[in-house]
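Morning F.,

Quick status update on the modeling queue. The single chain you submitted on Monday has been processed. Sequence for confirmation:
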Amino acid sequence: MQYKTNSELKNNARIKLTGNYGTAILATIIVTISIWVIQFPFLIVNNAVSMIMASLHLSEELITGFENIFTYATNFFLSFIGAMFNLGTSLLFLEIASGKRHNISDVFFGFKWQVPKNVRLSLILTVINWICMIPYYTYTQVNPNFLNPEIALKSALLLSVCNIVYILVTIPISQVYFLLLDFPNKDAKEVLTLSIEKMKIHSFRYIKLLLSFIPMGILAVLSCGIGIIWLVPYMNVTKALFFLDMMNPDNKSASESDAEPVLTN
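Structure tokens below.
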């Protein structure tokens, strides 16, 4: 079997995004704004309860303890919602990679299709993410002054390290959302198992693919984050093409599925 190189995958992603970049960028923005909107009520509740506790002259330790617990709970819930969006964005970018019809509303697909399975998969990834992020959350709670350059730099470095650890830990199950779309009759456990089996062979290829985006990621950050708007869709379509190549390296019609995949257009 002949698998495509990283250069071929990335070149194909650029071709597939021709004429579709607007939709891909808008989808990324919609997901980000949706999470921000969901976060807003939590901020209001946190501030309101803190003010009420302060007006009751409760101890500073009690108020701080509540704020820390509430912050951890909020971060966990928002991470879970973000994970729930992954199924919809996976569908959208897989459609673009496959040359299929797609719609911006696909980003909400995970909230209306295979919801119990999506919840289980997203919860697993959220728990792993939360565990990996504990050092960052703990440090920022103890050192909340981001106006201090030293604290801001250490927070950014710690966040980067935690995200790298999360990516490495979840590589074996990185294909679960694509696989759920491809094998809708499999349950969450079967999808997880299949992803682990596939990535035993392809983990090193996948890591090299992710590493190849580091130079562009640095440039995107140096552009005050503006370049990230273009980089994220490019990475996601490339990941979708990686999945398609992994499942079907010789470009033959799929034969492994035990059910009709979602992409039937």
